[in-house]
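hi! just following up on the protien thing from before. the input was this:
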Amino acid sequence: MAASKIQALWNHPAGPKTIHFWAPTFKWGISIANVADFAKPPEKISYPQQVAVTCTGLIWSRYSTVITPKNWNLFSVNVAMAGTGIYQLARKIRHDCYSEVEEVPAKE
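and the predicted 3d structure came back as:
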């Protein structure tokens, strides 16, 4: 029984013998790295990088539900990418626009 399930996975159109399996698997590394960057101070976060991560996640999570066969690994990694990107952008915007600016007294 287990052998038949392994063989079914191995021979699946989105199984380990295809790029459709490995590409989303490697994208998990980007999502994990973005989660690791949660500890990074907001001033070190890059707007272009996080916009790219967010847009990629949003676009490909939609596209992954349209392609055949449905690739749920691709869908879930892109939802994670969009989520972490949105969170990082929110942190950066909150820091840049809404944080208290400390006034440095002018030297006389």
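The mean pLDDT is 87.
The helical segments are 2-11, 19-36, 47-63, 72-98.
cheers
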